[in-house]
Model the fold of this input.
Amino acid sequence: MQTELSNTLGAEYAVFGFTPFPAVAAAISRAGGFGVLGAVRYTAPDELKRDLDWVAAHTDGMPYGLDVVMPAKKVEGVSEADVEAMIPEGHRQFVRDTLARYGVPGLAEGEASGWRITGWMEQVARNQLDVAFDYPIRLLANALGSPPADVVARAHERDVLVAALAGSARHAVKHKEGGIDIVVAQGYEAGGHTGEIASMVLTPEVVDAVDPLPVLAAGGIGSGRQVAAALALGAQGVWLGSLWLTTTEAGLPSPKLVEKLLAAGSGDTVRSRALTGKPARQLRTEWTDAWDDPAGPGALPMPLQGLLVAEAVSRIQKYEVEPLLGTPVGQIVGRMTSERSVQAVFDDLTRGFERAVDRINRIAGRSGT
Done:
């Protein structure tokens, strides 16, 4: 599972693992992949610095990267309070009524929401980069597409490659024009924010559209044979996120959520705006159903929805309110049937990849005789 891109970045395998958990990111790099730490949940630079210190000390010198969420167009002068003021009272009441209907307790007095995501805000993301560029990161990825031009230039000055996620060939071409180095072709099956094109169709379209830029395939990949398929479609690696959620290193704080993930099938996810305001694939729950119900107020656009539901999501997670409890995850959740270490996942990926390649070689050998 080596490609030109993985060799350039110094990774043994062309497996890029996105995760919000520092222990998982470090374990991915130690196992020979390329760990990418998601920064969106860090609201304070000191918190990110603490975890990057930990990652740097536990990767055994192997490469790693950072994923941020920031818009391509620079926006200044908008505070979190300004955005909060835009949230309609009717939507706030809908949240209160929904939580009351399921008997969700409130947070303790003075307890802050642990899920409050403000990393989408321009200044927050830039503060994260001020921290990150003091570390030997090899890759900067942006979940919202191409970062602002000055951020791309700043990364390149430090020999950091820049990756951007795309859900269509048209978006991928825009990323190429924006000067990024790697396109992540994220298919419909993927967890989190996705487009509407399946990976089998999207990956070769993006590969052709941005040639010679390297492409990583994302969405619906959780086995070695799926990695082999992605490389056969022209990708120079795979971008995996959901698969790490049930690893032992992730240590999800909610046993009930782990149980739900392990029990879920590939048809138990939904693309919903309930979490952030943009379509994001996640476990289908009574919470997503409430927001997707035409009788409800409907989700607000990003970033309003994320701020609106932040405290509610924290309460649901803290008290493990099973009917409402969910998380972003892709359709590959159907293969996530047991808790395993990151190393065990890699062992399975490499063995499956070797078997798939051997099988294709046998087929090709027979067809050529």
Q: What stands out?
A: Residues 105 and 293 are 24 Å apart (CA to CA). The longest helix spans residues 342-367.
